[in-house]
Fold this sequence. Notes:
It is a single chain. Helix content is about 50%, strand content about 15%. The chain is of the alpha/beta class. It has a single domain, classed as Rossmann fold, CATH 3.40.50. A five-stranded parallel sheet has the order 2-3-1-4-8, with helices on both faces. It starts with a strand and ends with a helix. BIS(adenosine)-5'-pentaphosphate binds near residues 34, 62, 175 and 201.
Amino acid sequence: MRRSLNLIFLGPPGAGKGTYAARMAEKHSIPQISTGSLMRSEISSGSSIGVELNSYISEGKLVPDDLTVKMLLKRLECDDCKKGYILDGFPRTLGQAETFEEKLKESGNPLSAVVVIEVDDQVLINRLADRRVCSGCGATFHLKNLPPKVEGKCDLCTAPLTKRKDDSPEVIKERLKVYHDLTEPLIDFYKKRGKVLFFDGDGKIDVIYNEICAIIDRLMSV
Ligand code: AP5
Ligand code: MG
């Protein structure tokens, strides 16, 4: 039986985690699991948990580990994760990484690799100002680098494109700070476990995606 492809995509806000994870998930027919997207869906549902989540996300702070891990583990129990998954934006703290490592040990289904996408802060600040997200299916576009075919409309489902609320300059600054303080240390955590693959995320989207695919294909063929 083919080994399952279990990936983590790690990187600062705007690095391209979602862009590459979505394409790779489609290529391998495995789900892209973005904790940010799960949380935004919960917020849209108007639930009391959604109200709590919004109080953190709107300020660029991390959602507490217990709540985040609970949501993630529930999603991983779904049948579509049996062949593998791409975690986009999880884990983000050492606490989340340690809890997840315990769960992986229990499942006997190890992590394949951690894809780290590196981009300078100033590039990210400029980049996120022009990101647009589909209000229907969540697909991501960029006004200059990945424009939709029809202005303001999603290529996939034609729903209107919107700006994410946490893509304001002040919140982006806070998200970058949180990344450097709490999430970047995970690179060392996974380096010690020999799992990290580094990619320069400042370049053409298609070129970077093909580089990631080539390395992952090689990894899965040995
Ligand atoms: P989340 O939704 O995960 O946001 P993020 O980590 O801040 O990352 P982004 O989604 O902003 O960026 P991305 O790397 O996916 O980039 P994208 O592909 O869109 O989390 C949001 C919030 O939820 C957090 O702040 C936190 O509050 C909470 N949260 C989520 N997970 C959590 C967790 N585990 N624990 C606690 N709290 C959690 O690309 C960005 C733009 O750039 C797009 O427009 C794209 O088209 C463009 N682009 C991509 N690549 C390139 C390129 N090479 N060149 C030019 N443009 C490019
Ligand atoms: Mg994303």
